[in-house]
Structure formats: structure tokens, C-alpha cells
Amino acid sequence: MLSAELQVASYPEGGVGPQHFSVVKVEVPDGADGLAEGEVLVRNTWTSVDPGLRLRLRAAAPEGYFSAFPLGAPMDGILTVGEVVASRAAGFTTGDTVWHSLGWREHSVVRASDEAMNGIGTLRQLELHGNEPQWFLGALGPMGLTAYAGLAVARALRGGEVLWVSAGAGAVGSLVAQMARLLGHHVIASTGSQEKVRWLQDTLGVDAFSYRDEEPGAALKRLAPDGIDVYFDNVGGDHLEAALDAMRMRGRIALCGSVSDYESEPRGPSNVFLATAKNLTLSGFRGSLYLDLLPEMQARVGRWLQEGHLVCPETVYDGLATAPQALADMLRGRTRGKTLVRL
Ligand SMILES: NC(=O)c1ccc[n+]([C@@H]2O[C@H](COP(=O)([O-])OP(=O)(O)OC[C@H]3O[C@@H](n4cnc5c(N)ncnc54)[C@H](OP(=O)(O)O)[C@@H]3O)[C@@H](O)[C@H]2O)c1
Where do the TM regions start and end (predicted)? Predict the structure, then answer.
């Protein structure tokens, strides 16, 4: 049968958009007869939209990161949730809900034994326990793991400190803000609009400011006059510079990403010496390399979800063809929470 997939048509210079992709119909098996031993056919139901994809839409991805997406091919390495429609792999049966990493396509033929994306993208059965399947792309999946792992590497799982998270209304940031609040921190979240500021305050229950209306440095002086202990950096550039200024002695910074650089010339902080002067710890980390924390994170976040202490905000686009626009909108701050495509 024919099924649609999104292929990379050209690499963007500057802002990504639908013009850089093409929807292509490809032949996929109808059932188990068309599968090789060890393969599973999945009808994808939800696929993820992540800033990291933009880093791979270029001839060479940053060294050490996931590889660049080749032109004229579907994009391997985007976590996706779906239902098994046929299986020739032990342990997987028709009707199972799974995640895997062959996303941005309607159907995927997945080899169950292939390890993908440091293990986080390997074909995996999902026990829903009353949770929505798409939450496994957000709070109960890679976004939750990234938020939790970042708090762990910044030694911030204990609470009682002042923590700033940038891109605080986004997928990772909104989870960091909620987890840190539940752990007992004083949380300050920054974002790009007053509407998102109100949502962060009213719905997530944290302090918030808009970097478009107030310099981060001035906002931090106002909201945390004695300084901050932990900075969860999703943005880089001027935000990281403001954090170095605002950190207290022995503060910790979790370097999660630098989205302000992904579509423009990188701009590093000019005050790195403050890391030495204040005895700070700056830790880069990748959630996918902390797979051992996944069960602990899912247990804690699952409980918070069931008890109504944590929400899974999402912005949903419908249909595979909308995924490129969803990526463009997310990078420009037009979405809130986890950006998803329903297939
Ligand atoms: N280390 C890891 O393992 C890992 C895993 C997943 C994600 N990440 C990183 O985590 C960060 C957030 O990812 P996400 O999936 O949660 O995306 P997201 O926050 O849902 O979306 C990105 C948001 O960044 C904000 N932004 C864009 N350009 C900006 C700029 N110049 N200055 C300030 N804010 C800007 C926008 O929101 P506003 O409206 O607030 O401007 C935008 O919506 C990214 O840096 C990503 O690469 C890292």
C-alpha cells in the first residue's frame, strides 16, 4: 500500500519552512507477509516536533550530536508513537502501543533489535496506565527525561533554592518549571510574550517574565534580588550571559540547549570568567544519555499527573503535511508546551 512520508528537499539558510520539505508517497507492506523476520509495521498516530531537528537540517550536524538528515530521504530520529498493525518480531503484537524513532511518516517498518538515538528511540512497548499516548512524547518521554536529567546534573532534585528556566513555556521548560516547583524551589520562568507569562503564573504557578519586554538581567534583579542558585538553560546567548551575572557562589547551570543560535549566528556570553570567580558548575547534558533515569522519572511524573499536580501542555497540528509549519512556528515561539503532530 502507499503511505506518506516527509523528506528533506533542501537545507534551510536561516528560517526553516514547508518549502524545505516534500511529502512523498512510498510503498509499505500491507501486513506481516511483507515484513522480514524481526520487523514490525507501525501505523503512526503522533509525532514529535523538536528544536534539535533544526540542528540536523544542514549538511553537517554539530560534532558529537545526532547525524544530519540526508536530502531526499525520510528523517530518521524523531520520536513517534503508534500502533502495531503487523509484527514478525518476538514480543510485539498487533494492537500494541509503541514508540520508535522513524518519525515524520504515516507508517514505519521498524527493526525491533535496532538501537536508535542512544537507546531512547529504540522500539518500545508503552504501558499507558490511563495516560494519553502522546504524553510519551512529552512529560512521560524524552521531554520529561531531559527536564529530570537536567535537574539531576545541576544537583537540583532536592528543592529549596532559586531556579531560573528559560524557554519556560516550551516542552522541556514547562516541565522543568513544574517539576522544580513541586520539588520546592522558587521558580522563575522566562518566555517570549505576556500571554505566556500569564499562563506560566496562573496555570503553572511560577514567577515569570517576558524577555521581549524586559532584559533578562533586569528581570532577575527584580524577581531574585539575592541571586539565583540554578539556571536551566534552553536558550544560550544573552540569557546565559544574564544567568552568569545573576548566579550566587557555587551555583549550577544545566546547559540543555541554545535555541537562540539554531537559526542565526551564535553569540556567546562575554562574562565566562564569572564561572571561575563564583566557583560555578556548568554541565552540558543530553537527556538520551540518562536512560537509566527514565523509570524513576516516569514513576514520579506519572504520580504527579494522576494526582493533578502536573499538566502536559501541548500544541497540536493535524496531518503529516503540517509538520514543517509546526517546526517553524515552534522555533518562532508561536506554540506552547509540547509541539505535536497528530497523524
Ligand atoms: N539536551 C537535551 O537532551 C535536549 C532534549 C530536548 C530539547 N533540548 C533543548 O531544549 C530547548 C527547548 O526545547 P523544546 O523541545 O522544549 O522546545 P520549545 O521550548 O517547546 O520550543 C522552543 C522555544 O524556544 C523559544 N525561543 C526561540 N528562539 C528564542 C530566542 N532567540 N530567545 C529566547 N527564546 C527563544 C521559543 O519560545 P518563546 O515564546 O519563549 O520565545 C520557542 O517556542 C532547546 O534548546 C532544545 O534544543 C535539549
Answer: none
